Amino acid sequence: MPARGRYDRTPGEVKVNGANRMLSFGAGPARWPEAVLRRAKEGLDPARFGGLSVLEIGHRGPDYARIHEEVRERLRRLLAVPEDREILLLPGGATMQFAMLPLNLRRDGRPVDVVLTGRWAEKALEHARASGPVRVAASGKEQSYRIVPPPEAWAVRADAAYLHVTTNNTVFGTRLARLPEDLPVPLVGDASSEILAAPLPVSRFAVLYAGAQKCLGPAGLAVVVIRRDLLEAVPEGLPPMLSYRAHAAAGSRLNTPPTALVWLMGLMLEWIEEEGGAEEMHRRTRERAALVYEALDRHPEVYEPVAAPPCRSLTNVVFRLRNPGLQPRFLEAARAAGLVGLAGHRSVGGLRASMYTGMPVEGARRLAEFLDRFAADGGAV
């Protein structure tokens, strides 16, 4: 048997049902807590639903209706959603919302204003442009998206249909530290990579939406929180599947919903409540981010964080090696230590550690220790 190197995992350090478990820092689909994985396994037992698995129960029946409504109720509690907001559970993820938002919120051909802060803000702009005019209210592109322009630098005009912001940027590792005050138009936010992981005052948004696969559970599902008065103004003539009003009227069961995905998200939300709710998730997020950023900052000769310090993301730590030639060795040594998913987005390269609600603080601590060891060894094992 080959000798174990200093980067290798200690056998049994991370175990699930007796098996080694890797710590995934991938940007999404993201890591799940072991407790939720166990509940999901148990929940597939047909004995729980009168001889049917949860994958087989009808979407119009009482068992699924209870699951569906419990998920929406948990979201309302955890996010402190005001009563004048509707909570929609929609298929297609956040990217689908890039197209649905302008179709539902644009009036009389009015432009959509977008704050450009990275790849996903660019995608939101691209989709909005497909159905009408768009404007860039502010942009960090000239600074290679290392910064997020502060709200006082945004040029938001009163004739806009809405202003779109991405609260956290997974590719470049930045986040919006402050929300604007007294906007003349509705504020729409994509919170896919920090919903329930970082504080988000839902009442400040006319629409807040998120893909589920980072902080809430499974891929293929989106949560949309929208003011009810905006639902009343959705244009007539939209295909029902593209209409927020139609989905709201049907209780997010306009067609057969992704029942298994909703059930899985419910397990994740149940776990979050049991662990202490949103406040505890926020605390863990800050602790994880501090552990990893502090390790990077201890070794400026080895690591270069991408985001400017005031704009650093709490959930996506993006960095580069001063010597890019060491990156393959870094990733190989990380995998040997049980740490995977650390390669940066394909569009920018580098390295990235994504740490959402399912990542334990101990996972961030193990990554920080690895960063220290790698720096001390100069990349050698």
Describe it.
The protein is of the alpha/beta class and 381 residues long. It has two domains: 43-274, 3-Layer(aba) Sandwich (Aspartate Aminotransferase, domain 2), CATH 3.40.640; 277-376, Aspartate Aminotransferase, domain 1. The protein has ten helices and 16 strands. The protein has helices at 34-43, 62-79, 93-105, 119-129, 228-232, 244-249, 259-274, 277-298, 327-336, 361-376, and strands at residues 15-16, 19-20, 23-24, 85-91, 112-116, 134-139, 163-166, 168-169, 174-175, 187-190, 207-211, 221-227, 303-305, 316-321, 339-340, 351-354. The strands form five sheets. The chain has a seven-stranded mixed beta sheet with strand order 4-12-11-10-7-5-6, with helices on both faces. The chain has a three-stranded antiparallel beta sheet with strand order 13-14-16, with helices on one face. It has a two-stranded antiparallel ribbon with strand order 1-2. A hairpin with a 2-residue loop joins strand 1 (15-16) and strand 2. The longest helix is centred in the last third of the chain and has 22 residues, at 277-298. The two termini are 18 Å apart.
Largest sheet: 7 strands, mixed
Q: Could you say which overall geometry the principal axes of the C-alpha atoms support?
A: globular
Low-confidence runs of at least 5 consecutive residues? 1-18
Which percent bin holds the helix content? 25-40%
The separation of the N and C termini measures 18 Å
Mean pLDDT: 93
